[in-house]
Amino acid sequence: MIYRRDNNQEKKKKFFVILAIFFFLYLFTFTPVGSFTRAQLQRFAPSVWGVGEQLALSNARIFSVFDSKSALIEENETLKKEIRDISLKLLDRNLLYEENLLLKERLGRGEYGQAVVARVISKPPRSFYDTLVVDAGSKEGIQVGEKVLYGDNIMIGEIAEVFEKTSKVRLFSSSGESIDVTIGKRAVPALAVGIGGGNFEIKIPRDTLISLGDGILAPSLMPHFLGVVEYIESKESDPFERILFKSPISLLEIETVEIVVE
Amino acid sequence: MFQFSNIFFVRIFTDIFIVVSIFFLTPWAPLLLVIGAIFYFKNFYEAIAAGVLIDMLYGVSLVKFFHTQWAMTLLFLFIYFIFNYIKRYTRFYGSSS
What we know:
The complex is a heterodimer. By secondary structure, chain A is an alpha+beta fold. Chain A contains 3 helices and 13 strands; from the N terminus they run H-H-H-E-E-E-E-E-E-E-E-E-E-E-E-E. In chain A, helix 1 crosses helix 2 (32-64). Chain B is 65% helix and 0% strand. In chain B, helix 2 (28-40) runs parallel beside helix 4. The chains are: A alpha+beta, B mainly alpha.
């Protein structure tokens, strides 16, 4: 005997499942349930990332036994040389920075936001979102929109969401994000658009005097460094030229950041 | 009486592995795992939960995702329906859907 399959029952079940999915999506998006769950998750997530970090560290220690001695000596020498060069540059830079602060103070513009140092607990490429999660939140006085710097002066992003103990950082280099900048000594104003992976693109009229190596700054009373012009693409048929540059620090290497608390 | 089958334990193990991959691996890992799991298990609703978890952990409003903070949830929802639909027409998995 042939029985017809009861499709009605199956269809009803599917309908209710889809209804339930959309109900939960609504609940998480438009009601406080979503923000409450996110806050709880952000409370517990840093300890999970911490365990992962510890595991990675112990792994690295175990495998370092197999590194060759000569390679280590060579690496050590290179690093020592790099440290010497950087210390010299830093000395010069610190002197200029202090002089800059002093001048601003004399002109009555010395007040500047306090910086909170935060450890990066999650960074790209952990998700398709180009975001950092840092271990400072509302407890440390962090607020949405505050600027995030690397090493005192390199601007990398801004605070997008704040929880009790953590915050999410939106990187300016995320695809489509934009930031006002000035280029070179002539401070040519432009709009830098992120293209992902720490890279930026700027489009400016072709006749603008820009050359390779020009510094790109985020304009403010205390201009922050974003990068240097690395590539200029200019076509006869295009009235605009395309400038490409990247953040001087690799996003994968960031361990700590500074958040400028306004 | 309800009995735990092997497939139940495999499913729990897969769920745990997906959660671990969300926390520690590149974004492609949970995506591929979820696609595989949709084919292997019947009604793998955890796929949508994985999207929600990613959004809650990392999601911010970005231009590239049209300012939605639920981009991954929507992506995983789309993947769930598309791959369940494809599954029906495949020789190996069609009967189990």
